[in-house]
Known about the structure:
six-stranded antiparallel β-sheet, alpha+beta
Amino acid sequence: MICKNCGNEIRDDVKFCPHCGAVNGEKAAQPAYTGPEAPVPKAGRGKGLLIGGVIAAVAVIALIAVFVTGRLSSSPKDQLGKAIEQTVAAYETASDSMGMPDLSRLVEARSISQRFSLRLNSINSALAGFDTSALSGLGLRMSTDLDAKDRKLGFELGAFWGEEDIVSLQVLADDDKMYFSSPEFTEGTAYGMSTETLGDDLERITGDDSAAGVSFNLFDLVDIVAPEGRNQELERQMKAANQALWEAVQVEQGGTETVLLRGNEVKTEVYQVVIPQEALEDYGEVWIEIYTSVNYVELYEEMLQAAGLPQEEIDSVMDEIGDLDLYSDLFDSLTRLVEELGDVKLTVCVGDGYVSAVKV
């Protein structure tokens, strides 16, 4: 039999054409779809999906732009703030490398260990007015190890020329015992005394009773001057005052300028800075409050009492100190200066991420 649909020969007993699938030689009918009808899109839904996709794409691009060009998009004030932070950090690093004393550590940790050395490698004779070349190589060194909690102190001060020591003084304190020595003068011998019996010892040695009763302990004086806990509160107040002042500062970018730095021309970004008078006045009031929170008159009297001075001598000294107003004249002068200056306007030049110059 010949398939009427495709024309190929097929067997007479087959129901379907093996070549085209026709039934009894005729094209098989496709069954009708009897499932649920396809949903009809609601008006505006396709448009909403399109808009949502565009917004998402724009958001992603914006985020990428923020990360890639974050520095460019930050405000001038933010950029200047970062430069100031980097500059302060650089000075702190230089101070650490020079071994400058860290007084804040002494107050907070009650201990300090410092090494300091300064050598004159060259001196401008024209500024001194005479030939100073002979002083080249002269140096000074100082080392301090203080543990206020264990009441121990080691201190050395020396002068040197090149690699040779000229003279040095060594001091060791262990609670009330103090020892002094100098390799150049005492030849290895250390001389000691007790600070708590100092006056009586001097009277016994010299026969002079003017210092009788004088007694002190170095570590007691440290505790009086820098008691534990005081520095943390003062630091908190100062940080809050600094933050409030910075928030009031106004900063605008002012183009670029080339400045001479250490003999080299450096291209810098210029920022115009305005510190409002009112903010400076508020800042000054906080500092006045901080300094006047400590009663220095009482502090001096307590130190004199700890030194074992007779009370009549202490009263005489305190009468003189009581007539002195240690800070009011200074604070009044600063207040008048702020009033005369008004808003302070500065030009700050930033090069390579650091503050290069400040112009008033």
